[in-house]
Write a structure and sequence with these properties.
This protein is α/β, with parallel strands linked by helices. It is built from 15 helices and 15 strands. The chain has helices at 37-55, 71-80, 84-101, 117-129, 159-165, 206-218, 232-247, 278-282, 287-295, 307-332, 341-362, 367-384, 391-407, 415-435, 439-451; strands at 2-5, 10-13, 21-26, 59-64, 133-135, 141-143, 182-187, 202-204, 222-228, 252-258, 261-263, 266-267, 303-305, 454-459, 462-467.
């Protein structure tokens, strides 16, 4: 399996620190608003890669954090007359709901920066003790980039270039030695959350948070660090400088970065009026379509979002779902017999598409080509399965389609099937409520189903239902 390593600008064979195990860190959102579709891209593409690693037999330790202390969170808290903790908690919950809609697997660990203060302070002190960081008069702690000889190795720029070209995005301060020096700890302002430290009452800089969370949950050295390409500099560059200076080992062997997402060929921004949250997209499309759309392009390629492309993704997903539905329909009346010689030969041919899928995902997580292999398998199934096919043949085709789709986190159940499952679950909840004599809840469920056009009938044989 090969992945493109931003650090070396080449595709490299994946060789993990510990055989059979992958330690992977993916930068998560700053929780001051609902996640937007730009946030969704790394969540989806690296979730699919994680699923593929697990499909290949790796034990994956997947960490994705929440940045829950930040200037934007504080600003939102002031606007809404809430505490920063309340704002963060609200949007973490909302993010989890959106991720569920996008079929993102839960991370092995989802740490929050505010819960890791002891480790953050300890790492900053280590950097000071080793001579990589310095404290100025107001208690601000800076990382001194000149002291780290490899600074710039991820973004492939030298310190002189960075100092000349990135002053506008650096924290300014009269006592800061160089423009590339960045904040590890800063003093509190009135009304802001703060923590006690040896230097001042304050809070950490953004970069040190991820370094500490990666160390706390994955160890000093990890296999893969991933995120959007906008994080390469300064965030990931600074993580490397902090972690390697403090821990004395290579921070991450491989760095994976997804390409930018544009809206109708323009950069997404609120001022341009083309800023969309995942929830806004969900009002128009099933989030399964958004996931399918994101995976239809290679993760490193720039991706353009538009209604036309989303409609194309919707049609593509429907092709796969319809094919799976058709096979399930054929299965109901299929012949219960052994595979014929032709069917056996066809299954060998069908397996070639699974091999193509595997080869695509093994080549730098090329989900676009992997989906093409699924389409080829679907076309083959449509042309070879009919009402004369055996149960074994159809079951094997269904299994292959579902397996490959599941690797990408693409659900191939029709909406009716999912709805049927939801109906059955609600009916079970209603029955339980009646057993507990919670008749108000039982009536509430009946009314909820009625709104969906589902009519319940209580019979001696149990509850039956039908669509209105």
């Amino acid at each position: 399996m090969k992945i493109y390593n931003t650090l070396t600008k080449t595709k490299e064979e994946l060789k993990t620190i510990e055989p059979g195990k992958v330690r992977m860190y993916v930068c998560g959102p700053t929780v001051y608003n609902y996640i937007h579709i730009g946030n969704a891209r790394p969540m989806i593409v690296f979730d699919a890669f994680r699923r593929f690693l697990e499909y290949k037999g790796y034990e994956v330790y997947y960490v994705s954090n929440f940045t829950d202390v930040d200037d934007k969170i504080i600003k939102r808290a002031i606007e809404e007359n809430k505490t920063p903790e309340e704002v963060a908690e609200f949007y973490i919950k909302a993010c989890r709901e959106d991720m569920k809609g996008l079929n993102i697997k839960e991370a092995t660990f989802s740490p929050r920066a505010t819960m890791e203060m002891d480790g953050i302070i300890e790492m900053i002190q280590t950097l000071i003790d080793k001579g990589y960081a310095y404290v100025v008069s107001d208690g601000t702690v800076y990382y001194e980039t000149d002291k780290f000889s490899d600074y710039g190795k991820l973004s492939h720029k030298n310190i002189e270039e960075l100092q000349a070209g990135h002053r506008d995005i650096k924290v300014t301060g009269e006592e800061k030695k160089k423009s590339t020096d960045f904040v590890l700890w800063k003093p509190k302002k009135d009304g802001e959350p703060y923590w006690d430290s040896p230097w001042c009452k304050g809070r950490p800089g953004w970069h040190i948070e991820c370094s500490c969370m990666a160390k706390a949950y994955l160890g000093d050295g990890i296999d893969i660090h991933a995120g959007g390409e906008d994080l390469i500099f300064p965030h990931h560059e600074n993580e490397i400088a902090q972690s390697e200076a403090a821990n004395g080992v290579t921070f991450s062997k491989y760095w994976m970065h997804n390409g930018f997402l544009n809206i109708n060929n323009h950069k997404m921004s609120k001022s341009a009026g083309n800023f969309f949250t995942v929830r806004e997209i969900a009002e128009k499309y099933d989030l399964k379509v958004l996931r399918f759309f994101m995976l239809s392009a290679h993760y490193r390629s720039p991706l353009n979002f538009s209604d036309d492309l989303m409609e194309a993704a919707k049609r593509g997903l429907e092709r796969i779902v319809t094919a799976a539905d058709n096979l399930r329909f054929l299965l109901e009346n299929a012949e219960d017999r052994e595979l014929s010689d032709i069917e056996s030969e066809n299954l060998k041919k069908a397996n070639k598409y699974s091999v193509k899928f595997d080869e695509a995902m093994s080549d730098d997580a090329n989900s676009a080509d992997a989906i093409s292999a699924i389409f080829e398998l679907v076309k083959f199934a449509n042309s070879t399965a009919d009402k004369k096919s055996s149960i074994s043949y159809i079951k094997e085709l269904i299994s292959q389609i579902e397996t490959l789709c599941n690797v990408l986190g693409i659900e191939v159940k029709s909406e009716d099937e999912i709805l049927d499952e939801d109906i059955e679950a609600l009916i079970m909840q209603r029955q339980q409520a009646r057993k507990e004599k919670n008749f108000a809840r039982a009536d509430e469920i009946r009314d909820m189903l009625l709104e969906k056009g589902i009519i319940l009938e209580d019979t001696r044989q149990g509850v039956k239902w039908k669509r209105a």
